[in-house]
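Minutes, project check-in
Item: structure for the 540-residue chain
Input as provided by the requester:
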Amino acid sequence: MRLARLAFLMSCFMALSLSVMAQQSKSVWIADGKLQYGAFPEGDRVPDFSPVGFGGGGTAIPNVPESARIAPSGGTEDDTARVQKAIDSIGKLPLNEGGFRGALVFDPGAYRIGGKLTVGVDGIVLRGSGSASSGTVLIATGDERRPLIEAVGGSEPIEDESTITQMAQARVPVGASTIELADASSFSVGDRVRVSRPASDQWISDIGMDDLPPRPEGGVVSNWTAEGYVFNFEREITAIAGNVLTLDAPMPQALDQKYGGGHVVKYAWPDRLQNVGFENLRLVSEYAEGQEESDEAHATEGILINRAENIWVRDVVAKHFVRSAVTVDRHARFVTVEDSLCLDPASRITGGRRYSFYLIGQRSLVQRCATRGGRHDFITGSRTGGPNAFVDCLAVNTHEDIGPHHRWAMGTLWDNIRGGVIRARNRANRGTGHGWAGAQNVLWNCEGSSFTVQSPPTSWNLAVGCIGDRVINEYKGEDGIYESHGKHVEPRSLFIAQLQERYEDSVVRAIVSPSQLNGSIFKDLHKRLDAEKVGRDESL
């Protein structure tokens, strides 16, 4: 009885807190040409999402000189070994001052790839002759489920355990870029560190993830456990004042002593892949004609990126893959994916398929991308640590929702996304216990058929200037913070506005396009989709 009463009182407190938050907080607005940030309760604020993408933000993607060229075989033979040999030959060249060995340039034509292509050496760029069907087409042949291209480094991060230092303050709020330590003497400016936030049974209980409801059909549902929700955020120290560290990107999750606090530790990752690019390519997966919604015995991803940093994908069209055009996996960061399409997947329309652009890693940017026929089009995975950003992206003929997909993805911005259903919510017993899909996520000037935004206990999700029906979630949870729903706000793009405040105009223009700056980007995206034939790619 006492436990039931305590639970009731806690629920009332959280409901009151969220109501006060919705009434008193302001997200971001313009005053005197500057962004103005309102504080949430306990000092949380909207994070700065600009330090994402290649180079950690503010870095233009380079144009790497050609080092070798390859032509299609022109027949039906498997080109895997021949193309891989050409990639490996560039991997033997010395690195230049910029950290690159050179680009392998593909002449126009079709290349049949029965296996997968692997880039596992720093400084290699694969550059096609265009992403149209008349350009460079890499065809994933056969019935093996695998990524067509894999950019993956080695090993795991190596922590210097002698430097583990606990935080000293009671709470590090969301959006903060400073952390006070008990003793900062182990650290120096320029150190790479991991900020680790433990979980606790109390936190799991307070957010209601220790008592997920059973599935009606009897499927497996797993309650969350503290050991499964330790979050590690990669940062670099930019300044030290006494015992206070300043970091190069804000925290997407509060560190709270009542839930175990947090610590900072130096780390190294000598075998992590760096400085790799993919551009001007068309990637197509073979599948059984007429089985567009059933055949899954073929390539799963166009490009898979993991254990890597400073990677880019630009002007890549991926068609007919089971799962995604690009997956940025858990141990990848500083990835930019731009001006790319994911078209007409071939798979069942059910869980684990058609995740068009899928971010699980940290500090990555997806911009000016479009999808057709996806399921979850612009999404984050479980325990994804931000900041991350999806900016100026379009989804048509989509079959499920856009947004954080499951299990507490933190600190992602969906900025000017056009699609169907857009959600940041409690997914409870969906999957095997997806629960709260995410926290500290921001939807900015998005348009969709409907929106469902909820704030988890202890945290928040925010929708600003979004247009579409507001729908109450089928699972319990308080409404998130809606601001100016049904009417767009200024600035048009939060991401671009944050870039403009952080960097010079020349830097901003090297990262975002003129059509983003003048607001005509969606005309460009619709035009590009209209130019792509619906259905089976003509290269097959």
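Outcome recorded: The first strand starts at residue 28 and ends at 31.
No further action items on this chain.
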